[in-house]
Amino acid sequence: MNILYCGDAGISRGVLVSILSLLMNGRRRFDEARGVMVEQKEACEPIYNIYIATISYDNVMQFEAKTVEFFDELVKKYNKKSFVKLIDATDVFKANLPKKNMGSYFTPCSMLRLYIDKVPELAKLDRILYLDYDVVCRGDISEFYNMDMNGVEAAGVLDIYGRRWYHYHGLFVQDYMNSGVMLFNVPECLRSGMFERAVELCVLRRMMLADQAALNKAIERRKLVARKYNEQEERPKADTVLHHFSNNFKFWPYFKVQKVKPFEVEKVHKVLKITEYDDILEEYNKLKGKL
User: Taking CA atoms, which of 13, 14, 84, 89 is between 20 and 30 Å from 107?
Assistant: First the structure.
């Protein structure tokens, strides 16, 4: 399975937790009869081809090669065929600067997934599962990853907030996807020019959540999948496969934006009151000193 993360050195802690969750929970499946995730004892360890795209630009702290080497050693302990590789997309980024959105809330690295078609090593792949650095795996992602993508550019889950306000196929049609978990059918994206359209939008138009907005506008043929593949609420459901620690809005006793990331162990416990990831976070605490 081809997995892509994009970011600078600041996302290393999140990527470590995310990778650990893939390794430690990748063989779990939801048991409908019992209503819980269970380990598939007979299943083989999944093979993960993990790419981390980064840039060296202006004040961006490039993701460090030594950190990627550490991640590579880590995944190989589970399956020798897995790997983690660093992709330096600096030249591609400089040649296609998202000029209208360079001063946005997010770092320029958040837009690197839009350049897949311009990075030869990524453009040659059949499909790529993009994950934000704050996505935690709770179970086997193979069913999602291997689903039929014929004629579809990308698959994802509706954004829990944006779906109410943004519509692309009719006023009452909910089709605005959250971009934190996206499965790209790379050959179809190349054929349609989807990535080129997304980059052009970022170059010419200032947008809120530019990378997500550009993808939603550029994708002509999308596949909406079950919420369990990108649960954006602060607490996962019993059948959640990928839990996205995205920002959540709180309205009581006053409005605030709640931001808790999976590597913020104390907040995960005290604010979200989540303990089910403790085995992953315990391993994270042992390893974070190597970052």
Answer: 84
